[in-house]
Amino acid sequence: MSDVQNVTPEIIDVPEVISGADQWLAEQRAKVSSIAEEYKPHQITSGQDYRDSKRARTSARKAIKEVEDARKQQVGAIKSAVKDFETQVRDLLEPLSNVDADYKAALTEWENLVIDSRTQSIAAWYEDEFPDVSSVIPFKTLWDRFSAEGKWGLYGTNEVAIRDDVEKRVGEIEQDLATLVSAPYDDADKANVKAEYVRTLDMSSALRNADEARKAREALKRAEEERKKREEEAAEYERQLRLANEQAAREQAEKDERERQQRLAEAEAARQRRIETGQEHPTPVQPKPVATNESATRTLVFEVTVPESVAGQFVAAMKSIDGVHGKKIGVR
């Protein structure tokens, strides 16, 4: 802070035109009263009176103009004098311009020093007095949440009052944490609520955020379940459609085979009628092949794949061959 400045007042002479303004104004008022008394308009009664009134009017206007000119001259002189006077006094307070700011800066510096020292002392006391709470909630978090309300950062606040308020807040925090332990939440939600609470010391906000997070998880879970359900329904629909198509193909193959067998039977019946009527010679019966010893002792096994649409035809063809046996072993 700068040293106190001793200032000697400087006497500034007031311009004469300003100091004599009252006397000049009194003189002009007297002159105006005299003119008003001398020149009084009246009702004209004769030609001579008319001419006298015109001359009187001219003289009155001249006298009024003299007063007006004097007024303008005096006002201009006063304005000029005031302007000059303002120039002289403009820097009058310059030597004192920094005095108040310097005092304020010095006072603020001291107040901040006291507040910082007091805050450090309370922070150390808080950590020693409440080790369980201070291990999870730093003093800065406590300060950010409650200092404005408790006026901890004001110079005039008593340190004992701040400690009492801190102790009260710690009691509330301990109660909140105990309530959270017995709350009907699962461990994950409790952990989320506690993490949010020790960060903000606002239990309502922590519970609200945890509830919103839980609802979001549940909504995500429902969406996933619905997605899986749709996929399962689509897969089941595809399976049922495939089975229906396979059944239709089998039924069509069986129908085609029945129709083929019917056509063969009808053709054979027609051939027999032609033979009976002499229209066609009977086909000589081919002797069945005689199995040799080699063929009797060996059986060949084949693996074949047959499209489902012609399965009936394949089975019928195989049955028409002597010595051929088999069964269906699966579907690919």
3D structure, described in words:
It comes from Parafannyhessea umbonata. Residues 245-295 are annotated as: Disordered. This is DUF1351 domain-containing protein. Residues 248-279 have a biased composition (Basic and acidic residues). The protein has 332 residues and is mainly α. Among the domains are: 16-93; 101-182, no CATH class. It is 71% helix and 0% strand. It contains 11 helices and no strands. It has helices at 16-19, 21-38, 47-89, 99-129, 131-134, 139-150, 159-181, 187-200, 203-276, 293-297, 311-319. Helix 2 runs antiparallel to helix 3, helix 8 (187-200) runs antiparallel to helix 9 and helix 9 packs across helix 11. The longest helix has 74 residues, at 203-276. The protein starts with 15 loop residues before the first helix and ends in a 13-residue tail after the last helix. The relative contact order is 0.04. The mean pLDDT is 84.
